[in-house]
């Protein structure tokens, strides 16, 4: 059972690292002017329109 816990912890750490990397890339893109900021309502509306298309 210990090996299964170890593998699970490794998978969780890798996923956290991936999420952190995505965040760093998004922040860099935002700072470079490649992304615009949205209100929550604007973001939801855009996501809904993307789902319809």
Describe this structure in words.
This protein is mainly α and 53 residues long. It has helices at residues 2-31, 40-52. The protein is elongated, with a radius of gyration of 17 Å. The N and C termini lie far apart (46 Å).
Number of helices: 2
Class by SSE composition = mainly alpha
**Topology pattern, helix = H, strand = E:** HH
- From the alpha-carbon coordinates, what is the Rg to the nearest angstrom? 17 Å
Annotation keywords:
mainly alpha; 81% helix; elongated; 53 residues
Summarize it:
The chain is mainly α and 53 residues long.
Topology of helices and strands:
Layout: H1 2-31, H2 40-52
């Amino acid at each position: 059972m210990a090996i299964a816990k170890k593998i699970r912890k490794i998978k969780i750490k890798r996923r956290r690292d991936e999420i952190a990397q995505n965040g760093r890339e998004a922040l860099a893109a935002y700072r470079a002017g490649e992304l615009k900021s949205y209100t929550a309502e604007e973001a939801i509306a855009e996501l809904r329109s993307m789902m319809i298309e």
